């Protein structure tokens, strides 16, 4: 297969799917990323052969040789997107083409073979079709889709692998943060950075998340929900959180978010920028220093701060902690603008709001 060619998927239904009653019990409180559907998709790649052996099969362990490249040099990328149950029983996805395109960009940065977007999109449709009963029908529920790909060649030399395995799994989810949309307390990491210019910050590779773990653990030890990284060069400017982009809403109705470069080009981030600007806010991408953040929160010029991402949707930030103290954003509660943008976004995602940009893709 090459370019936009279509792959044929072999469908091998799981002979022992989870029973309907057990599935219903699991779906009553799925949390985030704890339970999984009956199937997965796999597609293989080999240099000189291209993409082949596309399958939908029972979800299960992947046998791995101990010398598999990814285990040594972390050549791995992933995506995250959600399938929603529409009011008429159909199933929709939000901007899956953007995830497919970013998956290609991440692959290029990590010197991996890019999966053609058509194969990415077809894999989503096949998995949703076979596991559609796993999509929660609650207001906050969705089926989180996790496409990922890694260097599967058995080889210890340091060079790009010549073989890759693409895998798609799915997990019914509710809220990413256990408190739902209640305002977060965040920890500004004094010691750790996430990505430097020229590094992999803009790629959705597992390594970026691995580096965030110690800082997030420190945040939790400080009684916080998540960590905010500052830039790696000057250690002054807000970068992003462990898995979310950040927005600042000022009293003059400007909405500011850090510029692209070392941060993930979030699809939710881009959607929020568009929705905010259409709702009359002035949107700007510019660096925001920690000093400025603190001073503007104190003066009241800064009214609201929120985090956004596929998993987190839009989650307000109420409290900011750092080694020398802490400060509150506004009255510490969820801001009106934050919740309004959130509602507009969620209504589009769930098929209730007008969709002038054609972001919602009907799958079934
Ligand atoms: C997502 O929002 O989908 C992500 O991949 C972030 C991860 C922290 C769950």
From TrEMBL:
The keyword Translocase is annotated on this UniProt entry: no
Protein name: Branched-chain-amino-acid aminotransferase
Any one Pfam family match given in the protein's UniProt record, by short name: Aminotran_4
Upper lineage: Bacteria, Bacillati, Actinomycetota, Actinomycetes, Micromonosporales
GO MF term list: branched-chain-amino-acid transaminase activity
Superkingdom, taxonomy of origin: Bacteria
Cofactor(s) in the UniProt record: pyridoxal 5'-phosphate
Keyword annotations of the record: Amino-acid biosynthesis, Aminotransferase, Branched-chain amino acid biosynthesis, Pyridoxal phosphate, Transferase
SUPFAM superfamilies for the chain: D-aminoacid aminotransferase-like PLP-dependent enzymes (SSF56752)
Catalytic reaction annotation: L-isoleucine + 2-oxoglutarate = (S)-3-methyl-2-oxopentanoate + L-glutamate; L-valine + 2-oxoglutarate = 3-methyl-2-oxobutanoate + L-glutamate; L-leucine + 2-oxoglutarate = 4-methyl-2-oxopentanoate + L-glutamate
Coiled coil, from the record: none
Pathway where this protein functions: Amino-acid biosynthesis; L-isoleucine biosynthesis; L-isoleucine from 2-oxobutanoate: step 4/4; Amino-acid biosynthesis; L-leucine biosynthesis; L-leucine from 3-methyl-2-oxobutanoate: step 4/4; Amino-acid biosynthesis; L-valine biosynthesis; L-valine from pyruvate: step 4/4
Enzyme class: transferase
Biological process per Gene Ontology, one example term: L-valine biosynthetic process
InterPro entries with a match to the protein in the record: Aminotrans_IV, Aminotrans_IV_CS, Aminotransferase-like, B_amino_transII, BCAT-like_C, BCAT-like_N, BCAT_family
Family assignment from sequence similarity: Belongs to the class-IV pyridoxal-phosphate-dependent aminotransferase family.
The keyword Amino-acid biosynthesis appears for this protein: yes
EC number(s) from the headed UniProt entry: 2.6.1.42
Modified residues (N6-(pyridoxal phosphate)lysine): 204
């Amino acid at each position: 297969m090459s370019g936009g060619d279509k792959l044929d998927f072999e469908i091998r239904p799981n002979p022992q799917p989870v029973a309907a009653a057990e599935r219903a019990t699991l779906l009553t409180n799925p949390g985030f990323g704890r339970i999984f559907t009956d199937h997965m998709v796999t597609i293989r790649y080999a240099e000189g052969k291209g993409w082949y052996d596309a399958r939908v099969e029972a979800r299960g362990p992947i046998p791995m040789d101990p010398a598999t490249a990814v285990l040594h040099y972390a050549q791995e990328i992933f995506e995250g997107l959600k399938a929603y149950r529409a009011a008429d029983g159909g199933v929709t996805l939000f901007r899956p083409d953007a995830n497919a395109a970013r998956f290609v960009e991440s692959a290029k940065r990590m010197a991996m073979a890019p999966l053609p977007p058509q194969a990415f999109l077809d894999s989503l449709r096949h998995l949703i079709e076979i596991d559609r009963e796993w999509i929660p029908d609650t207001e906050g529920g969705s089926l989180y889709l996790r496409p990922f790909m890694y260097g599967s060649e058995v080889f210890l030399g340091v060079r790009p692998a010549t073989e890759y395995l693409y895998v798609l799994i799915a997990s019914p989810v509710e809220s990413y943060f256990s408190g739902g949309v209640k305002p977060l307390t965040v920890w500004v990491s004094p010691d750790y950075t996430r990505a430097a210019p020229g590094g992999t910050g803009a790629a959705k590779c597992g390594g970026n998340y691995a580096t965030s773990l110690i800082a997030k653990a420190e945040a939790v030890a400080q009684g916080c929900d998540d960590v905010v990284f500052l830039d790696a060069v000057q250690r002054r400017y807000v970068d992003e959180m462990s898995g979310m982009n950040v927005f600042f809403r000022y009293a003059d109705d400007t909405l500011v978010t850090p510029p692209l470069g070392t941060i993930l080009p979030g699809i939710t981030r881009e959607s929020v920028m568009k929705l905010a600007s259409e709702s009359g806010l002035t949107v700007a991408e510019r660096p925001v220093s920690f000093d400025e953040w603190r001073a503007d929160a104190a003066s009241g010029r800064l009214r609201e701060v929120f985090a956004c991402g596929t998993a987190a949707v839009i989650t307000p930030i109420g409290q900011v902690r750092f080694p020398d103290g802490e400060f509150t954003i506004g009255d510490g509660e969820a801001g009106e603008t934050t919740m309004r943008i959130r509602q507009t976004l969620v209504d589009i995602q769930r098929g209730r709001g007008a969709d002038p940009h054609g972001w919602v893709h009907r799958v079934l």
